[in-house]
Amino acid sequence: MKKNLSGIYKFIVFFLLISFVVSCSFFLFLHFMDIPTEKLKTAAPLTFGNVIFITLIFWTLDTIRQKIYTERPIRRITKGLEKITKGDFQTRIEPMPTVSGMAEYNEIIAHINKMAQELSGVETLRTDFVSNVSHEMKTPLAVMRNYAALLQNDAITDQERREYAAAIDESARNLSALVVNVLKLNKLENQQIYPEVQIYSLSEQLCECMLGFESEWEQKQLEIETEIAEDVTVQADPELLRLVWQNLISNAVKFTEPGGTIGLTVREEPGFAVVEIRDTGCGMDSSTGKHIFEKFYQGDTSHASRGNGLGLALVKRIIDIANAEISVESELGKGSVFTVRLRKGDEKNGF
Q1: Average pLDDT for the chain
Q2: Which of 217, 213, 221, 210 is nearest to 259 (CA)?
Q3: Contact 258/222 with Cβ under 8 angstroms?
Q4: What is the average pLDDT across 49-70?
Q5: Are residues 76 and 146 in the same domain?
Q6: CA angle 106, 108, 113 (to 5 degrees)
Q7: Structure confidence at residue 189 as a pLDDT band (50, 70, 90)
Q8: Which of 45, 61, 140, 228 gives 266 a disulfide partner, CB atoms 3.0 to 4.6 angstroms apart?
Q9: pLDDT at 238
Q10: What is the per-residue pLDDT for 303?
């Protein structure tokens, strides 16, 4: 009904426009010509009919033009958007032919296709993320339930009871660390971060972070090698960078066998502050090294009981925000070296 009314309205507009043009033309023509009234009476109905006929021609041509050059691309775009809104992010809208005079719609179509591609990637990441979080939570929960069941046995010794309680405590810590890292990573990935930039001593911060793990590396009798240049300062958010150092040092301590060595180096290079954290732990092969910054990736299955695969993903996200660089050199069975390069005094960096 609305479509019919729109067609009638358009016809009336064309009629009034053409009538106005014809009337003005006739007025000017008659103003300078001496034409008998009898002939005018005969020509008037014919002229009126011509106006209606011309209006019909223009209305028809405009309707055809609109269907081809307006309704057709809009219909194609609308159908594609309907599929996308229903969750079909694999939908891609075919561009209009460039020679058809409708190429201007291709820019809109290109942006819609790019949006669908981004949504498809986000949906895949969300699904994988939920699946991985669920899987990672099952492991410590299963351990806690099993040892809790064993604790209910009156026949176990005090030593076994303490061991079971320690296992439950460790699983609870792992679960708590998983939740904390998930929340941190979610905040860093999905919220606009406004870092609190300040100039501070990077050397002092790294010393504090290393000392924070003193009990752990003393318990494993690890040898600590440090080469920290004095007064290395950076312009950054200290709290965000603290998460980077804590994760990297924690991994070095965690994956280094008792009696091994952990090294920390802080030095300055032209325009950069460079931090190296190395260990003599289990290391990794090249294929594992390509994926270690991905969420939940654990190339070495022996790590599964000691991590949740989120720490390095968190590190990488912070490094990206800081517009810094991180690299890793590792050899299976010989250890790893993580190198972070921070720009110094650059107001245009991520911080």
Answers
A1: 77
A2: 221
A3: yes
A4: 74
A5: no
A6: 90
A7: low
A8: 228
A9: 87
A10: 41
Output the domain CATH number for residue 281: 3.30.565.10
Tell me the C-alpha distance between 192 and 188, whole Å: 8
Going by pLDDT thresholds of 50, 70 and 90, the confidence category of residue 173 is confident
Based on the domain organization, do 324 and 208 belong to the same domain?
yes
Query: How many domains in the chain?
Result: 3
Residue 101 lies in a domain: no
Is 20 within a domain?
yes
The residues, ordered by sequence, that sit 6+ positions from 292 with a Cβ below 8 Å of its Cβ are: 284, 299, 312, 328
pLDDT at 344 over 90: no
pLDDT category of residue 25 using cuts at 50, 70 and 90: low
pTM metric for this prediction:
0.51
By residue range, what is the domain housing residue 82? Answer: 2-86
